[in-house]
Amino acid sequence: MRDARAEATPTPYAVEGVDLRKTFPLRRSMWGRAIEQVVAVDGVSLAVEPGRTLGIVGESASGKSTVARMLAKLIPVDAGKVVWEGADVTELKGRALRPLRGRIQMIFQDPYGSLDGAYSVGYAVAEPLKVHRRASGSDARDRVAQLLERVNLDPRLAARRPGELSGGQRQRVSIARALALEPTALIADEPTSALDVSTRAEILNLLRELQQTMDLAIVLISHDFATIRHLAHRVAVMHRGRIVEEGTASQVVNDPQDPYTRRLLDSVPVPNVEEQRRRRERLHSSADTARPSSG
Ligand SMILES: Nc1ncnc2c1ncn2[C@@H]1O[C@H](COP(=O)(O)OP(=O)(O)O)[C@@H](O)[C@H]1O
Ligand SMILES: [Mg+2]
């Protein structure tokens, strides 16, 4: 019965990954065969609806960025499915993918990576509009000004180079650029990890504001629970290429089920009296049981 309903109505998800897998070769034999490899992502399924944020949290090398890059179709999957707005895009590439490219956009930790220092801010924001033939000339300039205003930047910054801006301003520019093609989903991979604490909060607030006005789906990736918690409706905890726990943000933060999730939570300051009480209780109750090994 559930299946019949699923067929009758389009999927509610902006972006979805089904049983995603990815292995990287570390070393190859002289014949080009991988003789050592790392299983970066080992069967991950997740989905996010328009207007909602899914947080992915996990320590370094747990596979978060690899999941993000597969969802954004920056790298191919070894196995599994990538679905954008109900359309299976797993096998699409090049030309066939092009009309859909703007639907799902990625933001990275270091905006320098996505902004070419040789070009102006205005050029960077206008580029996707030009590449996808959505606007040119004075239309493009107007659109760039609107996009900069949307991320709370002075449109006059269009004439500057990324190197002249602060880290927070640069991240706003890369968000403006990501919004140029009016995506349904943003995949933000550690978007605030390189920023100082107050700028971090500003960028997260901006993302929330944009989500509300544009009904954006957001996949927010961080090694840091405090960041995830700020924005996420649901949280998936990754460990060694798998999701070890998934639930609403309050379930996962207030009542973690997996020992790895507890360990992650214990390593970040969570400014919440209730949580601190629980944490003390957990400490007491785990005093006579073995602590999960750290790895
Ligand atoms: N292009 C690559 N080539 C080889 N190994 C990679 C590559 N990308 C990621 N890895 C490995 O895959 C694992 C997961 O990496 P990643 O997805 O970047 O984790 P995270 O974003 O959680 O830090 C790590 O062991 C990493 O070294
Ligand atoms: Mg990463």
Care to describe what's here?
With about 300 residues, the chain is α/β, with parallel strands linked by helices. The chain has one domain (about 50-75, about 105-285): 3-Layer(aba) Sandwich (Rossmann fold). Helix content is about 40%, strand content about 25%. It has twelve helices and ten strands. The chain has helices at about 1-10, 65-70, 95, 110-115, 120-130, 135-150, 165-180, 195-215, 225-230, 250-255, 260-265, 275-285; strands at about 15-30, 35-50, 55, 80-85, 85-90, 105, 185-190, 215-220, 235-240, 240-250. Strands 6-7-8-3-9-10 form a six-stranded mixed sheet, sandwiched between helices. A four-stranded antiparallel sheet has the order 2-1-4-5. A hairpin with a 2-residue loop joins β9 (about 235-240) and β10. α5 (about 120-130) crosses α6, α5 (about 120-130) runs parallel beside α7 (about 165-180) and α7 (about 165-180) packs parallel to α8. The longest helix has 18 residues, at about 195-215. Magnesium ion binds near residues 64, 65 and 189. It comes from Amycolatopsis pigmentata. It holds the Pfam family oligo_HPY. One of its GO terms (molecular function) is ATP binding. InterPro entries: AAA+_ATPase, ABC_transp_ATP-bind, ABC_transporter-like_ATP-bd, ABC_transporter-like_CS, Oligopep_ABC_C, P-loop_NTPase. Belongs to the ABC transporter superfamily.
